[in-house]
Amino acid sequence: MKKMTIIITAFERSPDGGKGLARDTRVRWALEEAGQPYEVRLVSFRAMKEPAHLAVHPFGQIPTYEEGDLTLFETGAIVLHIAERHGGLLPGDANARARAITWMFAAVNTVEPPILELAIAKFQEGDKPWSKERLPLIENRIRDRLKPLSSRLGDADWLDGAFSAGDLMMVSVLLRSRASGILDEIPNLAAYVARGEARPAYKRAFDAQLAVNTGKLPAG
Ligand SMILES: N[C@@H](CCC(=O)N[C@@H](CS)C(=O)NCC(=O)O)C(=O)O
């Protein structure tokens, strides 16, 4: 069977300037862990809201994933798809696999929301009169998620045995809390994230998105 080319979308110019926080990085990382080559279609903020992109992503966002007839959006679903079809991201044992998927959902559904809320409060609502009072409340909501996560991780390297797509998603989400200083308040979580960043596959993913944002190499 002919192998389909995988095409993902990413920001033409990421607002973070290449710090790896745009969500295409987690998809690139999963593809690198799985040893799958991919191409990147860069989209501008304007193009993201136009019909051609909305046909691929109903909310007009990045990243998306195309492989032959299949089109996906939502990084949780994309990473799960990659993990289910290729080795290296999900354990073989059915129960361990279900637990790894549980951590993926925990990352996007339980840990990411307050982290995202803080970014919105700072960068989109920072000029509102109530913004200053609200920030510490959201910061505490992040701590309310990170502390139990830290307790569960303990001194283990990864959340449930070997590195999995659950860790990939969790590290990706936690990276977005580093700028607030909250991640570094919790040493075992900071070390967990650093372990993720030290993986060769993460480095390749990071470098690829950085190259796009610094204009040093062609995408893909
Ligand atoms: N829950 C979605 C979030 C996607 C998302 O927020 N993408 C951001 C980039 S990291 C985006 O496209 N923002 C531009 C916009 O929403 O207009 C996922 O995990 O894929």
Rg over alpha carbons:
17 Å
Mean pLDDT: 96
Main β-sheet description: 4 strands, mixed
Instruction: Provide the helix percentage.
Output: 40-55%
Structure ligands:
glutathione
Q: Which percent range describes the beta-strand content?
A: 5-15%
Subunit arrangement of the protein: single chain
Could you give the order of strands across the largest sheet?
2-1-3-4
Shape: globular
Q: Can you write the helix and strand succession as a string?
A: EHEHHEEHHHHHH
Number of strands: 4
Distance between the termini: 23 Å
- Quickly give the structural class: alpha+beta
User: Which stretches of 5+ consecutive residues score pLDDT under 50?
Assistant: none
Q: Can you count the helices?
A: 9
